[in-house]
Design goal:
The protein has about 475 residues and is an alpha/beta fold. It is built from 13 helices and 22 strands. The strands form seven sheets. The protein has a five-stranded parallel beta sheet with strand order 3-2-1-7-20. Strands 9-16-10-11-12 form a five-stranded parallel beta sheet. Helix 4 (about 175-180) packs across helix 6. The radius of gyration is 23 Å and the shape is globular.
């Protein structure tokens, strides 16, 4: 009788999940790679959608080589039966049981049929999601999130407009703008709330990551050639249009965090891609009882959480880009393989990845500091009739009434009084905006379920299977 190999469930098939799955499978662990998308790669390595004429912008050479290496390694493990790829599985809960875990998921686009996988350990590579702050007109057709625009351009799908403005804050805006230009849009402006001078504060940190600066310079060069105006220390204060987006008004912001008088400019466009950074996706970790460190999952040097048998890697532990996710995923996969086999891992085996992880964490901490927070007085420009929670159609006026007239002093009370955050996204998209309008501090919300689940599934969950 052959000894059963331990099973590791890796949730998420982006850079962190792929690196973890390959590292664990190479060291004798049976891996169930579970992901909501039809194909592996995540947002960073998103592939063009199959179909006539579908195409995506060309990746940078070092990104292409890394993807080719990951894809070849995955194909080899799939063929050998060491990895099972479970696609279009929307994980809604990870349940701890005696001696292991059960990963519960919903199948396919309809998300009505359930499935469950039993594993000895779980590695969470769940990525992050976008923050978008509301402003008048942000619900007009033609206004999309920056990540949504990137998904369309990478997937080779039709864009919702041809003349684009990319706005908000954070390093995601540069690749979004260049991706839209490569997909055929005319990107007239990139509107960044951060001040250009903020990036001159830590030259030593920037010097340790020349590849990142070369990548940024390549993006900037593409925008320059495309004729895109780059406007720093500016923000979108309003989107205009009747049936759909026709223009946006942007303004510089002053030292008090208000739009500076006389700085407003109107830019014609029919596509606005807007985003204000990313937030780690921690719902599954929350459900397991993992501790958070700030917004991300707390992990040790092996990427272990404080829940035995659970590892986390990539954006779920803190936003840091694909290269950091790859390093963390590799370390987590090697650690999981050793620990599930009952041995202590040798950190010398991932010393190179650990050095890369330390360097990139310092880099992204400095980058986060340089981008800073949104202008302090941005909620003043959000009129009472502006919808701040799209799912429940809650306006800024309703939120302010809950605070000023009904005595709400925290986000939970605002939610109970207005239904803001009770819709399909469960506050993931609207929470920063509602908190800003309400003047309440954002508080991490523990969600028992990571996504909506049919009552029939809760009443009669399926028997879990174990990959073999």
């Amino acid at each position: 009788m052959t000894e059963r190999r331990p099973v590791l469930a890796v949730v998420g098939a982006g850079p962190a999940g792929l690196a973890a799955a390959l590292a664990a499978a190479s060291r004798g662990v049976r891996v169930a790679l579970i992901d909501s998308a039809p194909a592996v790669g995540g947002q960073f390595y998103r592939q063009p959608v199959p179909g006539p004429g579908a195409r995506g912008p060309q990746a940078l050479p070092h990104q292409r080589r890394t993807w080719d290496r990951l894809r070849a390694g995955l194909d080899a493990h799939l063929a050998a039966g060491r990895i099972t790829h479970l696609s279009e599985r929307h994980v809604w809960c990870v349940e701890a049981e005696s001696g292991g875990f059960v990963v519960h998921a919903l199948l396919g686009p309809e998300q009505e049929e359930a499935t469950a996988v039993r594993a000895d350990g779980v590695l969470l590579a769940t990525g992050g999601y976008e923050q978008v702050l509301p402003f008048p007109g942000w619900t007009l057709p033609g206004v999309v999130t920056a990540g949504g625009a990137q998904a369309l351009s990478k997937g080779g799908l039709s864009l919702p407009g041809r003349t684009a403005v990319v706005a908000g804050s954070g390093p995601l805006l540069l690749p979004v703008a260049t991706g839209l230009a490569a997909a055929g849009a005319r990107v007239s402006a990139l509107v960044e709330t951060a001040a250009a001078g903020a990036f001159a504060r830590r030259p030593r940190t920037w010097a340790t990551t020349p590849v990142k600066w070369a990548e940024g310079a390549a993006y900037a060069g593409r925008l320059l050639r495309a004729g895109t105006a780059v406007m720093t220390r500016h923000l979108v204060v309003e989107a205009h249009g009747r049936e759909r987006l026709e223009a946006v008004t942007v303004a510089a912001w002053d030292a008090d965090g208000r739009p500076a008088p006389g700085s407003e400019r109107r830019l014609a466009c029919d596509l606005l891609a807007v985003g204000h950074g990313l937030t780690p996706h921690t719902d599954l970790a929350d459900g397991l009882g993992c501790r958070l460190d700030g917004a991300g999952v707390r992990v040790d040097d092996e990427q272990r959480t404080d829940v035995p048998g659970v590892w986390a890697a990539g954006e779920a532990t803190g936003i840091g880009g694909a290269d950091l996710s790859l390093a963390e995923g590799h370390i987590a996969g090697r650690s999981a393989a050793a620990r599930l086999a009952g041995t202590a891992p040798d950190p010398r085996g991932w010393a190179r990845a650990a050095r890369s992880r330390a360097r990139l964490r310092r880099f992204f901490a400095a980058l986060e500091d340089a981008y800073g927070d949104p202008p302090a007085r941005w909620p003043e420009r959000v009129g009472d009739d502006t919808v701040v929670c799209r799912c429940e159609e809650v306006t800024a006026g309703a939120v302010r009434e809950a605070v000023d007239s009904l005595g709400a002093g925290d986000l939970r009370t605002v939610k109970l009084l207005t239904r803001a955050g009770m819709g399909w996204c469960q506050g993931r998209m609207c929470e920063p905006g509602v908190a800003g309008v309400a003047g309440c501090a954002p508080t991490p919300a523990r969600r028992l379920l990571a996504r909506p689940v049919p009552l029939g599934v809760l009443a009669a969950p399926p028997d879990p299977t174990t990959p073999r």
